[in-house]
Amino acid sequence: MTRARLLHVTPETHHVHIDLVYATDRNFTGKPIYKAQHCLLLEPAEATLRRAVGIARSFGMTLKIFDAYRPPQAQKVLWDFLPDPNFIAELGRGSNHSRGTAVDLTLVDEHGNDLDMGTGFDAMVPESGHFHAGLPIYVQRNRTLLLGVMHGAGFTHIASEWWHYELPGSRELPLIDNEASGPLRLM
Asked: Could you say which residues bind Zn(2+) here (predicted)?
């Protein structure tokens, strides 16, 4: 059986900004979950991300990544903190982040500013939904722009989180254990 290959995504190799919030205390748990910031994706997801980067760059934008591969052990930490299947994948089902096929991100303009998406990353509120009614027009426009970039590259989205994109058909892939992640260790 072929072992899943996770590839490193870096600002230098991929022309992205990286701010892995689970390596900091700036996440909804209030504490770091990863010891270091290592952004990893499964090979097909990494190739799709490269397409998304190219699309965003074609109109002067950059992608900023908040999370990518997430070991199942980290998923358990998140579920234990907030067992809400609307925002956290149940442990029995597993997260596509733990398959290396999902990425959480936003768009950054030419001045280095995140586009206003109406809520912060990981805001576990109804307003985080892609098409939440009542958001200002510029927020809807920014979310639709991100959606177009990511769909154009080959990703799909989930309805509840404007920041979350994944490869179609990811559920058929196995979870990748933390042992495969090399440097990505939990606190």
From this structure: 97, 104, 164
